[in-house]
Specification:
- With 155 residues, the chain is mainly α.
- It has one domain.
- Helix content is 74%, strand content 0%.
- It is globular.
Length: 155
């Protein structure tokens, strides 16, 4: 549970304390340096946290996964979500955005030493375990992509 706590604290600080108005505006423009910087901050912090629980190479892979998913979740919210804070849809979309980020954290957890689910941990030479791990990451990516997109259309 320590990894989850650290990831949640990291997420709160970078999303709600350290994020600048320029980053918020940049998240809605695909490839904007400010939006990329925001996700890079998440990725770097995730990397540092995970260094205490996994190998450096695996920390890089999981941090890259956090970068890609965080960037796209935020981009979808900025382009399809309600931006009017007075509208109840804004809060629905903000909650959905935060839930999607938490799902990413839960997909990272089984791959840390904090949770020893070796079936998903690609540290052995067992090619099947590595393949299953990457299929798992791809499935999480597709789930996030479609659940966020279609949920925003429903609100």
């Amino acid at each position: 549970m320590l990894v989850l706590l650290l990831l949640q604290l990291k997420h709160w600080y970078i999303d709600f304390v350290a994020q600048t108005p320029e980053m918020v505006a940049g998240k809605g423009i695909y490839g904007n340096p400010k939006g990329v910087l925001h996700s890079a901050q998440h990725s770097l912090a995730t990397f540092v946290i995970l260094l205490f629980f996994v190998s450096p190479l695996f920390a890089v892979l999981l941090a890259a996964f956090d970068f890609v998913t965080h960037y796209h979740i935020d981009w979808v919210k900025m382009n399809y979500g309600c931006r009017d804070i007075q509208n109840p849809k804004f809060w629905n979309h903000l909650g959905l955005d935060q839930m999607a980020h938490q799902i990413v954290f839960f997909s990272i957890l089984p791959n840390t030493n904090d949770y020893r689910f070796h079936f998903f941990l690609p540290v052995s030479s067992n090619c099947v375990s590595v393949l299953i791990f990457w299929i798992f990451l791809f499935a999480i990516h597709m789930f996030l992509k479609y659940i966020v997109f279609f949920s925003l259309l429903q609100f």
